[in-house]
Design a protein that fits this description.
Order of helices and strands: HHH
Largest sheet: none
Radius of gyration: 17 Å
Shape: elongated
């Protein structure tokens, strides 16, 4: 008796990355000072705060980090 191959089931994603990622890039194109921070540098925590406060998007830090890394963005020393 053979088992048939089928698509793995699991919990569907809460958000659609194709919708959220353009909003993240729109935010990080501006300096963090435009959103009230003292320095112009972005951190994932700052991106998260702006997304929650300004755009009402509830997303995890790890998801933001994964999206930014997937786009080829990384932490840089100023």
């Amino acid at each position: 008796m053979k088992l048939r191959a089928r698509r793995a089931s699991g919990r569907p994603p809460k958000i659609d990355c194709r919708v959220v990622f353009p909003k993240i890039t729109k935010v990080i194109r501006h300096a963090a000072t435009d959103y009230g921070y003292d320095s112009p540098l972005w951190t994932t925590k700052r991106v998260l705060a702006v997304l929650k406060d300004k755009l009402a998007i509830d997303i995890s830090l790890s998801t933001i980090h994964r999206m930014l890394r997937g786009a080829g963005l990384s932490y840089q020393k100023p």
